[in-house]
Amino acid sequence: MPTDAGVLTRGAILDAFIPRLTPEGLGHTILNLEVDPAKNAQRWSEMPGLYWYFPVQQARSGSQVLMEHPYDKSEFGNHPLLAVQIYGAGRTAFLAAASTWRWRNFFGDLFFYRFWGQSIRFLSTGRLLGQNRRATLFTDKNTYQLGDEVLISARLLDELYRPLEKPEIKLQIRVNEKQETLSLKPVPRRPGTYKGTFLPQYSDQHMALLELDDEEAVSRVFTVKKPSLEFDRAETNEKLLRHLATLSGGEYFTLDQIGEVPGKISQLQESIVTEEEDELWDSPFFLLLFSGLLICEWILRKRRMMI
Fold first, then answer.
1. What integer is the mean pLDDT of 188-200?
2. What is the SS3 assignment for 42?
3. Looking at the structure, do residues 19 and 103 belong to the same domain, yes or no?
């Protein structure tokens, strides 16, 4: 897999370096230390650094670089540290560093075992749904929310297992009974790699399907869910809570101030306004008025000899 390998001329190695994940590496199953992509990238940036690695100037054509050196580079770009490639009916991987045991520092065996366990599973399960000998489909995540963009990438080889060179690749996005065509464009300086973005319109399971001329179709399934705004930011928003308390005429208390709450409640005074409805036709005033008018009418009729 590596080509043009050589030993760098350098003095004593005193500073550690933290490997940098490529865009393909951020979503690859080998390097998923955390479920959330943002947390995964943060986790790798906090991992203990490495000191030595075998310098490789350029990855072999058709391979996929997942991890690279943060600053050592050649004319072809940063030196690859971890690369994978389909070979025959199976998979191969190249790791330039030999001191991954350093990842046990601070974390114990958790991430060290997770990395090697996922590597073994990836290499041992050669032909999975979404892959064949000449094509592989990836998405940057397995689950999305409505409004998220889905990044779809493909690694494609021609009949001679060389990186496929085409101006664009078209695949189908299927959800329920609907179908949409998506164009993938070549990635500069990454032969055989194509990428495109898709904005889902429905919350359901989606399938990206790529049909090849002389090979079985490859697919990638991902799920789109409705956003859960209640749990997007579950942390305490003290500023907002204080503002709401001020608007409602109340006060904001933290847990360590809970003892002050009873005293504040006893000092509160509130005016209670009650409303009573009294029908006008049923009031004593109108009864007396009606009776008085009726009596006056009788008296006037009596005087005029009308009764």
1. 88
2. helix
3. yes
